[in-house]
Amino acid sequence: MTTAKGRSAAEFVPETHSLSKLRAAAAACEGCELFRRATQTVFGEGPAHASLMLVGETPGDQEDLSGHPFVGAAGRLLDELLAAAGIDRAETYVTNVVKHFKWEPRGKRRLHAKPSSREIAACRPWLDAELATVEPALIVCLGATAARALLGSGFRVTRERGKVLESERGEKILATYHPSAVLRTPDEARRHAMRDEMLADLHVAAEWLGKRGSRL
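^ thats the sequence. predicted structure below, dont judge the formating
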């Protein structure tokens, strides 16, 4: 088998606007080395033409095992905040910038590791294919990795979160915290503040879509 070094997902992405065909093709992706240690590809899920797309960083341990995005503790917090903001998760498309779990061993545990810029770039064709297929009215980036992938390396979530911005490609994007970042914050007061700020950001997204008659 040839090494994945220097390759990207581009050679595995089919010419199609079918999410089911994209998902099937992604299951065999070897566009970067992350596939070697991951249990499986974790592709995006949701309606084919959702008005809202949520984009995170990379699957976590529970997502890697289940094959579904945002099903662990971070997923439960996301579901709670979406509901509080009046957003139906069943009507949103949820995915990650990187489709394979990157981890480091810590005893018997597998701890999340941040994907490199090369791994993000290698996996980007899958996200581009999802965006071209779903054509969401608004993208909500969950965390800095997703936001910088779509808005550039200079973007800072702490400074520009909660604003509907436009990417170089003309996409409407709002960034907020990743729910995992909220959960990992050790200071209780700050953790509650981040949760409230994330909820406020999702309210902005809901209101923006509501003014355009988008279904949530």
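The chain has one domain: 20-211.
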